Amino acid sequence: MAPTLPLALLVALLAPGLGVAFPSCDYPPHLWCSSWDIAVACQAENRCANLSRPAAATPVELSLFYESLCPACRWFLIQQLFTAWLLLPREALNITLVPYGNAEEKNVSGKWQFQCQHGQEECLGNMIETCLMHEAKNFTTYFPVIFCLESGSSVTKNLEACLQVYAPQLDGARIAACVQGDMGTELMHRNAQLTQALDPPHQYVPWILINGKHTDELQEQAQTSLVGLICRLYQGEKPDVCGESRAPKAPTGCRR
């Protein structure tokens, strides 16, 4: 009597080039290359040369226009935005920060000057965070520092302490030079231009754009449960955190 071949080996012999079926594969070998999902389930991606990979899902784009001392801006950044950034995978959410808010600029003898809703302390805070972003370049590097500044006792006096904890590789002196020099002024002017170009024009801050768009509905959803909103909009494989998400009611924004 001829020896009996194991089923997995028999499948491999009958379907040369495909290999052995895996426990997550419930499909016969002749279907392994019929779709990308089936190829992945059967771990046959490398054997399906004619099967095109699905396009990678693009991250949800969130732009936050804010000012450093606005209570509602600080609440959103600390409670919603930073939490979502920690919980969601990097490929699901891309964040742009524009610290300017309800400030006004004027050109005095060829030099830009700024007036901020919460006084010169806020202008300084906006400038510090803008120069921090310019020096650090990488969002993963500067966002924890901004979180530290916004959640601490003073946005303008805790830079060195926050750098020591979250980004010791950054040079505080370079950031200070930016704040005190022409570079910081030019960066703030750019933030002013970005804010003034908003369509529709912002009426308050925080002013939130989702995929380049602002609506009252998107704003409310972002401030109520940003994780839940991103989970609904992201077209890629949903991360584990995408479940029911509840959050406290957001405070009223800083109107112009």
Automatic annotation (TrEMBL):
EC number, UniProt record: 1.8.-.-
Cell compartment(s), UniProt: Secreted; Lysosome
Alphabetical keyword list: Disulfide bond, Glycoprotein, Immunity, Lysosome, Oxidoreductase, Redox-active center, Secreted, Signal
Main location class: secreted
Signal peptide as annotated in the record: 1-21
Domain of life of the organism encoding this protein: Eukaryota
GO molecular function annotation: oxidoreductase activity, acting on a sulfur group of donors, disulfide as acceptor
Biological function: Lysosomal thiol reductase that can reduce protein disulfide bonds. Facilitates the complete unfolding of proteins destined for lysosomal degradation. Plays an important role in antigen processing. Lysosomal thiol reductase that can reduce protein disulfide bonds. May facilitate the complete unfolding of proteins destined for lysosomal degradation. Plays an important role in antigen processing. Facilitates the generation of MHC class II-restricted epitodes from disulfide bond-containing antigen by the endocytic reduction of disulfide bonds. Also facilitates MHC class I-restricted recognition of exogenous antigens containing disulfide bonds by CD8+ T-cells or crosspresentation.
Family: Belongs to the GILT family.
Subunit structure: Dimer; disulfide-linked.
Protein name: Gamma-interferon-inducible lysosomal thiol reductase
Native source species: Nycticryphes semicollaris
